């Protein structure tokens, strides 16, 4: 066993960033995620690894600092919560359009508007379907434990650099605030200038090498024909992600006649609901999407051989359920159960919803 | 002897007294005739060349007529969202402190939509150079009012002249920036005569030297013309600028520490 500790999800994001060789963090305080930057400020990584940590004047500035840092081939990130992530949407679409790798963490709280500071999962559409303008996709990872908050920081950077695309960790106030046992990652050194040149030398704006092609970080092409070709390239990239990067977990699915589909903290609640339902003799399993884009569409379809009905459980009025319905395409009933506005459902409520909405049919 | 061979003979190397810096690319500029952007580009390119910092300089282009500045200067560039160039420059300079980082921004970009980003980059004293091209109008989008548009000035969105009671007042952002302790060098220049261009070049050099010496933020406003937006000929534009802009935006150095 490596370095095992009892830590808050938000603190772990900060710790994992330092340990994975992150070069820069740019953020703006907002509940329930302020501990990310606070932890970094206490840890002073600038003295340890040379990582830059800066409190920006706004989320708009923070995400554009990320754009600048990413343009240099650096591993850079920001974190925020829902209202702040709304402000970041401009920068996020520019990152996608300029094909820049970066990590954005959203510790979701209830909305709309200023909403509440309590946890929610009501930013699914924003994260997965767009949020900003234009045809783009983020790689979206949904941790369901403090351990995954640790693991997904490094994984996000790995995927972001593999596909030259921004990645998002879509978590919520439950996972951000709760304390759990976590095995922290080993330290990885930050990339040297030479390593950056090797990894990102075709595009990183590090100063023009005499005689070599200069590099321009831009999302602009005024020529529509070229812009369409570029969009084809982006779409091909998203299809490759769908082919190669789908991640999910199945719990008690082998003999399942019914299925919960839930991610993040809702998946944790559903895990308990599976136990409670099985005690009552209901053979229900849980499919937990880990990547929300690319979505585990095929995995859901494969479950349809034995499953008679699906309940999508989310702390929203019904967002991810649309992707479940698209996958199922009417073959079995799909219903949604959600509490929202900052309310967290109990496992009992989830079992009751299964009985009423699916078994009752 | 044909005319071309004769011209080629005249412009032979021995006869040359002035050449275009190679940092300025041969791409045809999209700027309107008489536009100040082209002159400012040339000055920046010459200074980068003369200081030998081409391989260490990263430019951040704005949204505005100079969005395509990266087509003209042979350096690495980042193209920012409207108004956000100072945020990109902040991260670039902090993550690569040995580089020369500059933003190049219009008045709409810097003083309106990007007001927060520029004020805070200046307040933090980022080790960058800011070029602020004040032509008192939104050139790119077809000549609408800018924060720097003068009282009474006719634009596409102030067709009866800017009424300050309704729109607020022409903004002296450079004066505001000079007040911030984070800035080291704040100056207002122009580029309408050879003399003005020579002066401009001196301050540009000083600004990049400040970056080299890690002195912090240098801010150069260039009071400029936009003949298309102003609907005047290039010559008339220069006259209008001298008559109307210079009194409100007086040239000179506001701060040099
Ligand atoms: C978010 C956003 N809002 C508006 C625009 C449209 N727009 C493009 S350039 C511009 C004004 C530029 O004016 P200025 O900065 O003064 O530059 P100039 O063209 O005069 O050099 C505007 C409003 C945009 N591209 N993005
Ligand atoms: S519209 Fe104005 S600022 Fe733009 S290129 Fe023409 S003269 Fe220059
Ligand atoms: Mg302008």
UniProtKB/TrEMBL annotation, chain A:
Domain (Pyruvate:ferredoxin oxidoreductase core) ranges: 256-350
Domain Pyruvate flavodoxin/ferredoxin oxidoreductase pyrimidine binding, chain residue ranges per copy: 15-188
Domain of life: Bacteria
Molecular function, one GO term: oxidoreductase activity
Keywords, ordered alphabetically: Oxidoreductase
Keyword RNA-binding: no
InterPro entries cross-referenced by the UniProt entry: 2-oxoacid_oxidoreductase, PFOR_II, Pyrv_Fd/Flavodoxin_OxRdtase_N, THDP-binding, Transketo_C/PFOR_II
Protein name: 3-methyl-2-oxobutanoate dehydrogenase subunit VorB
Species lineage: Bacteria, Pseudomonadati, Bacteroidota, Bacteroidia, Marinilabiliales
From TrEMBL, chain B:
Highest taxon above the source species: Bacteria
GO biological process assignments: cellular respiration; small molecule metabolic process
Annotated ranges, domain Thiamine pyrophosphate enzyme TPP-binding: 70-222
UniProt GO MF annotations: oxidoreductase activity, acting on the aldehyde or oxo group of donors, iron-sulfur protein as acceptor; thiamine pyrophosphate binding
Keywords from the named record: Oxidoreductase
InterPro entries: 2-oxoacid:Fd_oxidoreductase, THDP-binding, TPP_enzyme_TPP-bd
SUPFAM superfamilies: Thiamin diphosphate-binding fold (THDP-binding)
Claim: Transferase is one of the keywords in the record: no
KW Oxidoreductase (keyword) present: yes
Protein name: 2-oxoglutarate oxidoreductase
């Amino acid at each position: 066993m490596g370095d095992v500790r009892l830590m808050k999800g938000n603190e772990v994001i900060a710790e994992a960033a330092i340990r994975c060789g992150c070069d820069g963090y740019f953020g703006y305080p907002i509940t329930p995620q302020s501990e990310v930057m606070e932890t970094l400020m206490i840890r002073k990584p600038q003295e340890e690894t040379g990582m830059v940590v800066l409190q920006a004047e706004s989320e708009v500035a923070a995400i554009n600092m990320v754009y600048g840092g990413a343009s240099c081939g650096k591993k850079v990130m920001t974190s925020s919560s829902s209202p702040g992530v709304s402000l970041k949407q401009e920068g996020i679409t520019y990152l996608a359009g300029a094909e820049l790798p970066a990590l954005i963490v959203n510790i979701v709280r209830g909305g709309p508007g200023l909403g509440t500071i309590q946890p929610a999962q009501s930013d699914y559409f924003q994260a997965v379907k767009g949020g900003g303008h234009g045809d783009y996709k983020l790689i979206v990872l949904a941790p369901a434990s403090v351990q995954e908050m640790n693991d997904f920081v490094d994984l996000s950077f790995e995927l972001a650099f593999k596909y030259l695309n921004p990645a998002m960790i879509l978590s919520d106030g439950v996972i951000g605030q709760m304390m759990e046992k976590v095995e922290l990652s080993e330290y990885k050194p930050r990339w040297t200038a030479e390593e950056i040149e090797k990894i990102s030398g075709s595009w990183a704006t590090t100063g023009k090498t005499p005689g070599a092609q200069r590099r321009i970080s831009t999302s602009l092409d005024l020529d529509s024909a070229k812009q369409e070709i570029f969009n084809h390239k982006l779409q091909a990239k998203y299809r490759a992600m769908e082919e190669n990067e789908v991640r999910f977990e199945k719990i008690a699915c082998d003999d399942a006649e019914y299925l919960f589909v839930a991610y993040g903290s809702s998946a944790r609640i559903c895990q308990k609901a599976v136990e409670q339902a099985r005690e009552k003799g209901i053979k229900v399993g849980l499919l937990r999407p880990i990547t929300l884009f690319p979505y585990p569409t095929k995995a859901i379809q494969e479950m349809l051989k034995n499953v008679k009905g699906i309940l999508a459980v989310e702390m929203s009025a019904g967002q991810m359920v649309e992707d479940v319905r698209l996958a199922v395409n009417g073959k079995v009933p799909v219903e949604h159960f959600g509490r929202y506005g900052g309310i967290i459902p109990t496992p009992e409520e989830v079992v009751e919803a299964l009985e009423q909405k699916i078994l009752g049919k | 002897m044909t005319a071309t061979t004769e011209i080629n003979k005249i412009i032979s190397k021995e006869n040359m007294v002035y050449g275009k810096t190679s940092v300025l690319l041969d791409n045809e500029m999209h700027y309107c005739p008489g536009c100040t952007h082209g002159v400012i580009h040339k000055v920046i390119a010459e200074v980068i060349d003369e200081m030998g910092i081409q391989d260490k300089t990263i430019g951040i282009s704005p949204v505005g007529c100079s969005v395509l500045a990266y087509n003209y200067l042979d350096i690495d560039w980042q193209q920012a969202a409207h108004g956000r160039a100072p945020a990109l420059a902040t991260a670039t300079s902090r993550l690569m402190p040995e580089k020369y980082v500059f933003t190049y921004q219009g008045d709409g970009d810097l003083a309106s939509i990007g007001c927060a980003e520029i004020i805070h980059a200046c307040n933090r004293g980022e080790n960058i150079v800011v070029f602020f091209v004040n032509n008192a109008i939104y050139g790119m989008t077809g000549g609408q009012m800018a924060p720097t548009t003068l009282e009474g000035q006719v634009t596409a969105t102030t067709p009866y002249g800017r009424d300050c009671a309704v729109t607020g007042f022409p903004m002296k952002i450079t004066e505001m920036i000079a007040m911030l302790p984070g800035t080291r060098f704040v100056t207002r220049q122009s580029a309408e005569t050879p003399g003005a261009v020579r002066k401009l070049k001196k301050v540009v050099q000083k600004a990049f030297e400040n970056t080299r010496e890690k002195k912090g933020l240098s801010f150069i406003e260039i009071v400029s013309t936009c003949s298309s937006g102003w609907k005047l000929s290039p010559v008339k534009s220069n006259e209008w600028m001298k008559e109307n802009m210079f009194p409100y935006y007086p040239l000179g150095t506001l701060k040099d520490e």
